[in-house]
Design goal:
This protein is an alpha/beta fold and 283 residues long. The chain has a domain at 24-46 and 115-275: Glutaconate Coenzyme A-transferase, CATH 3.40.1080. Helices cover 14% and strands 24% of the residues. It has five helices and 17 strands. The chain has helices at 25-33, 105-113, 150-156, 217-222, 267-275, and strands spanning 7-8, 11-12, 15-16, 20-21, 41-44, 63-66, 70-76, 94-102, 119-123, 126-128, 133-134, 159-163, 175-176, 191-193, 197-202, 205-211, 228-229. The chain has a ten-stranded mixed sheet. Strands 11-10-13 form a three-stranded mixed sheet, with no helix packed on it. Strand 10 (126-128) and strand 11 (133-134) form a beta hairpin. The radius of gyration is 19 Å and the shape is globular.
């Protein structure tokens, strides 16, 4: 799949590599859409995540959740389809899938906080090697920042995917050893989808699962502020979205179950369960 025409010069040691193209925001959304399992309840955050509904594979059904009170949201409305009484949390007109429902905004947030979402996809300013997320304020930026419901969603969803550019406009890594921006949630991120790579947060560190077409693992590491684990067998590094068969059946044999199941997967669930476990009070 072609990139977006944005060129990035990468330094490996003292050698400057030729400029290369990155993926567009729409291509990042398309890649993230392939991470969603059939039958999941999914919340899409603002920015790149909000584009995902337009790229959902036809063979699966996903029930998109919106904080303003929709379950069963479809893609964004095309010109001529708009109903401005039927909008998402960004006030953009959307479509509905059969069986969609409406409810109070308070109930929508209870769904987020109560662990009823299988997957949430959020944007990010920084993600640490431990899966910490900063996505609501950049130090020094004008205004107070906008946390919205990101803390509730990041803490409550069973799986969290973050979509973002791999670096800032100035070329600084957004994947870092430790977040320096105000935190949204600790140990919450499972997978990072950028314009250069797909990276999984694992107990042993950040696992580089896929790289963008035309890029190498060494070049991705040069633009990443934390060590990446690269498979010894380079054949395990898949091409990016668009390659035949890539992750089409990612969840088929993994025993995935929807939110109603008692089976909760993910490294971050184990970490957070321990972090917030009940401790005997002293005194």
């Amino acid at each position: 799949m072609p990139g977006n025409g944005i060129h990035e010069k990468v330094m490996l040691g003292n050698v400057r590599l030729p400029a290369k193209s990155r993926l567009t925001r729409e291509q990042i959304a398309q890649c993230a859409a392939l991470e969603l399992p059939d039958g999941a309840y999914v919340n899409l955050g603002w920015g790149i995540p909000n584009l995902i509904a337009d790229y959902l594979p036809k063979e699966i059904t996903v029930y998109f959740h919106s904080e303003n009170g929709i379950l069963g949201m479809g893609r964004r409305a095309r010109p001529g389809e708009e109903d401005f009484d039927q909008v998402d949390a960004m006030k953009v007109p959307v479509t509905l899938i059969p069986g969609a429902s409406f409810f109070h905004q308070a109930d929508a947030h209870l769904m987020s906080r109560g662990g009823h979402l299988d997957v949430a996809v959020l944007g990010g300013f920084q993600v640490s090697e431990k899966g910490d997320l900063s996505n609501w304020k950049i130090p020094g930026a004008k205004g107070s920042g906008g946390i919205g419901g990101a803390m509730d969603i990041a803490a409550g969803a069973k799986t969290l995917i973050v979509c973002m550019e791999h670096t800032t406009k100035d070329g600084a890594p957004k994947i870092v050893k430790k977040c320096t921006y105000p935190l949204t949630c600790l140990a919450c991120v499972d997978t990072i989808v950028t314009d250069l790579a797909v990276i999984d947060v694992q107990p042993e560190g950040l696992l580089l699962r896929e790289v963008a077409r035309g890029w190498t693992a060494e070049e991705i590491q040069a633009l990443t502020g934390a060590p990446l684990i690269v498979p010894n067998d380079s054949r395990k590094l898949c091409g990016f979205v668009g390659e035949a068969g890539v992750r089409k059946s990612r969840h088929a044999n993994e025993g995935w179950k929807p939110a109603g199941s008692t089976c909760v997967a993910g490294l971050r669930r184990e970490i957070r369960a321990h972090q917030f476990s009940e401790r005997p009070r002293e005194g």
